[in-house]
Amino acid sequence: MTPTLISGILLSPITAFVARLLLVFMFLGSAISKVTDFAGAEAEMAHFGLNPPWLFAVGTILTQLIGGVLILLNRATWLGAGALGIFTLLTIPIAHHFWRMEGPMAQFEFYVAVEHLSVLGGMLLVAILAERMRAA
What is the mean pLDDT of residues 41-51? Predict the structure, then answer.
């Protein structure tokens, strides 16, 4: 049985908003950073062999901004979570290919990949919870 105080906190719309904000914070921050330093965003895309870099930078920015805002506003949450989940999953073979590395860098990139899978779980949960709230 959940204590009444905790239940009240968990059921609060404010808590739900803060949770969604925390989930998308890294995506919104990354998008804003890329917008304010587009040359850096292009360089990042080129570094990972994505061509043309400008197109991948724009696609990344739009995915992060639109997906993040959809989740934050709890509108078409399935779409925002799906887009960010797929985006996050795709970064593993593109940017965190630990299986091609050795030593400490391989271990670091492995942990980043595992964290990305955890974020994917968060995206699934936010979409599930949004759908359950709409169905109730």
Answer: 97
Of 118, 133, 23, nearest to 75 (Cα)? Answer: 133
Residue 16: exposure state from Cβ atoms within 10 A (0-12, 13-18, ≥19): middle
pTM, whole model, 2 decimals?
0.93
Average per-residue pLDDT for the chain: 96
DSSP 32-56: HHHHHTHHHHHHHHHHTT-SSHHHH
Dihedral class, residue 49 (left if φ above 0, else alpha if ψ from -120 to 50, else beta):
left
The identity of residue 118, as a single letter, is: S
| Length of the chain in terms of residues written | 136
Q: What angle do CA 41, 44, 50 make, to 5 degrees?
A: 105
Report the C-alpha gap between 85 and 128 in whole angstroms: 13
Query: Looking at residue 134, what is its pLDDT?
Result: 87
pLDDT value, residue 3: 95
In angstroms, rounded to a whole number, what is the distance separating the alpha carbons of residues 105 and 114? 14
**Cβ pair 83, 65 in contact under 8 A:** no
Question: What is the model's pLDDT at position 117?
Answer: 97
